[in-house]
Amino acid sequence: MPKDDVQRETVLGRCEIVTEVVLPPPVPGLRSSYRKVRPRRSWDFPLVGLALALNFSGKLVSRAAVAFSGIAPIPWRSRPAEEAITGTALDSATIAKAVSVAVKGAEPPAHNGYKILLCRAVLEEGLAALPVRLA
Known about the structure:
Layout: E1 30-37, E2 48-57, E3 60-69, E4 76-77, H1 79-85, H2 92-101, H3 114-129
Antiparallel strand pairs: 1-2, 2-3, 3-4
Helix pairs in contact: 1-2, 2-3
């Protein structure tokens, strides 16, 4: 497990490979996106990534999943942001609340504090873009 050994991020044994990943079809009302922020070169690793998956029931978010990449050895799920979004309409006040709590408790290593600001900015941008896709 990554918490034990950051060089090993799977539980595959020797000589095992993943040959297939089967996903269920998306549920009605699901809106999702992924964004990564990186330097201009396409082969650079992202500084921060954001995966969003929000289920809408009418105009209300019935379920939210918010995960950041590029800030830990494994994707980092933001439960506080999910809780701020769930059960609400995705308006500017909800987005502001989610952004304010998104990285609550994060303690970046030296020279990585800027990633806190990047996480907040990419979350604000990602959430603001989702309602446009609801048509």
